[in-house]
Every structure is written in C-alpha cells, then in structure tokens.
Amino acid sequence: MNAPAGAGRQRYEIRVAEDPADREACFAVRKEVFVLEQGVPEDIEYDAHDAGAVHVLALRREDGLPLGTGRLLYGPAAAARNGGEPSVGSLGRLAVVEEARGLGVGAALVRAIEEAARERGLTGVDLHAQTHALGFYARLGYEAYGPEFPDAGMPHRAMRRPL
What we know:
8 strands
C-alpha cells in the first residue's frame, strides 16, 4: 500500500509504517496532535497495543515531512474495544498535523486503514470518535451507535462501517 494522493500544491503519500523510523514518525505526529495540541497525557497516548497494531503514515512527497497517522487494531485487541467482535477491526489514533488539515490526508489515512483491515479478512471497522469529528467519519460512511462517553477527558462516540 503506497498510494499517492493530495490536493493542490500539497502532495502526499500514504504507506504502512513498516520500519522503526516510520513508526517514530507516527508517534511524533501523535505527540504533536494529541499530547501537545489536545492535552492528552503522554502516559495514556502510547499503549501496549502499539506494538501489534498496523500503523499508517502520511508523508509530504516533496520532503518526507510526516503529516498524519492512524492505526488499526485487529484480533483480540480490537475485540476488546468493539464489543467482542473478532471480525471487526478498530481504527484509532488518527491524527493530522495542523498544516495538513483540509487537504484530504485524514480521509486517505482512513481508507488506507480500511484496506489494511480488508487484507486481514476483517468485515468492518469500528472507532471511537471525538464528538467534534463525527461529521468527518459520517462522510466516510461510518455510523454512530451507543451513548457518548469520555475518553482522555474528551467526549467520544462509537462508530462503525462495514467493509
């Protein structure tokens, strides 16, 4: 999975973060967006699921600058987050740096995570969306279910999309 994408002058590529440098770039984006910008405590931003997750990374084509990231949990790790359904993956930690917002990076990351889920034989993707992002995910085909709940001190809703 290495798909070029972009809008206007801003061109980027999305790829699975296979090597340690790519993973570190994913973690750096998460730190910038979640820890520094949104105030999520660093000790809860990174967890034991990171080691077994599929991480995707968006990079600016011209200079390799990391623009965004997201991860897919599958198997028992995903089932623990989605009500026990082993055939449904869990999309999470989707983050796009401020300068790249509005360019389609987030949507491209979601589609790359969905493709990784399909490659693993999953039939759907579940996520916990910050409530301000419900419209973004709804435009990508996700439907909210269940009540609002707090996560890292912010309101969230569960959402799902069949693949």
